[in-house]
Amino acid sequence: MALSIAFQESQFFLRLLNSCIESIKLDVSQVFANVSSSHNRASRHGNRLPFSLEDLIMSVGNQYQVTTQDWFSQKKGNDEERDPQVVFNVLDAMLKDSLDRLKTMRESVSLTKIGFNGCILEMDYTGCVAMIRNLCLEGKFRAALWLRNKMILKGVIPDVITHNHLVSGLCKAGDLEKADKLVREMLEIGPSPNCATYNTFIKGYCLTNNVDKALNLFSRMAYDGIQPNNITCSILIHALCKKGLLKDARKLLEKIVGDDCGKETSDIITSTIIMDGCFKNGDMAQALVHWDEMLQMGSRIDVVAYNVLIHGFCLSQDMNNASRYFCEMVKRGLLPDIFTYNTLISGFCKIGNLDEACYILGVMSKMGVAPDPISYKMIIQGLCIHGDVTRASQFLVRMLKNLKVPEPLIWNVIIDGYGRHGDIGKAFFIRDQMVSFGVLPNVFTYNALIHAQIKEGNIVDAHSTKKEMLSTGIYPDVVTYNLLIGAACSFGFFHSAVWLYDEMLRRGCEPDEITHNALIHAQMRRRKHC
User: Fold this and answer.
1) For the chain, what is the total number of helices (H) and then of strands (E)?
2) Structure-model confidence comparison of residues 43 and 314, the more confident one
3) What span, in angstroms and rounded, lies between the C-alpha atoms of 97 and 103?
4) Would the pLDDT of 80 be above 60?
5) Rounded distance, CA 329 to CA 302, Å?
6) Which residue among 43, 87, 102, 177 has the highest number of C-beta atoms inside a 10 angstrom radius?
7) How far apart are the C-alpha atoms of 54 and 56, rounded to whole Å?
8) Pair 137, 162: CB distance under 8 Å
9) Is pLDDT at 364 greater than 50 in this prediction?
């Protein structure tokens, strides 16, 4: 809208400028014509002011008329030597006024142009940054880096969050050399890397089992003036514990936290983090050794330490011990927080004990800890996975009553749950309810609906849903096409399957193994029947 208004205004000023220039050209030519004719008439009519010149004075306004008439009154007795300079004085006055107006107009046009270009530049920046992030999410890092370089060549540098997307994508792809080059470029031309940049890069080295380079990068953080945080410590401790370097992990932690905390606090933090690293590496025995050491030293164990212990038992699906230490925690007078409850809910959901998970959700509400969207998400997902979609819908209603509008994932889980149980009507009802609460359906929503329709044999309806999907600006992904191609092959519509495959390629959607297997098996069945 802003672009349209700016463009229309600039067009208006340009047309006005052209018309003004044409008007001045016409006035100038008319003045010179009048000068010529007035010279001839002056010799015939004595002292009378030429009629065309009078008209000229009237046309340029009172401010020039008074001045010019005064000048003529002073020259009235000079019949033989009429000074034609008066004409040019009037002309100069008129041109000066016109040029002043033109200057004002030109400045207005320039301002409009600046605003117009600024608006375009702002929109271009926002669009390019969004595109880089989307390309990273899709794994198209070469295209993302190309677009970033193009922006820099135009003098526009993407922000640090966009660069973090690029670093994260390159690290996940295992291309740590390009990630390193990108971070160095950030240090040279900006934006300066932040803690999240280094955490991502350190994790990349740890995932490739290159702990030495991760530690070097950790040292470089301090050199670049960036303070490591808890996530940095957790990544490095986890990597060191995984390699069995517990002494190194402890030394590193003591170095990090020793300067900022007292000895007792430092020991608790160090032991807790190392214990967490042991649990995550599956070394339950070593983790419990650290727990016993903390008890023997008489350390004041806090909620965080208990959370780590409970989380460790949940990771190994030992829910009996997890519940036991939860009760011990309460007896010690330590109040469980949202992380404690969500850890237990997650653990019970993973082993399929949904009744206990729902019970924990009720307990936390009674204890004054309000369930957050993560709490509800785990319960709803667990219920849908185990086929209790009706109960999951009840928790959805409970969320909405508590003014917690779920994210698309939760809606999609329930839609998919109804679809898998053959209740297409309720699946579409949840979709409509989702829209009414201002949550826009995404590709996963439509895939769940298409899957439900295909499962019931409604291929025509599935294609209609795909058309609706496109009308809302959402493009089908490989799952969408696999569902439709698989259905077409199953029902013997091989030509339709090939057409969908061609459309898939035209839209830049890369087929996968499932796509090719469906087409190959369909072709083989056709040959058998020939």
Assistant:
1) 26, 0
2) 314
3) 10
4) no
5) 9
6) 87
7) 5
8) no
9) yes
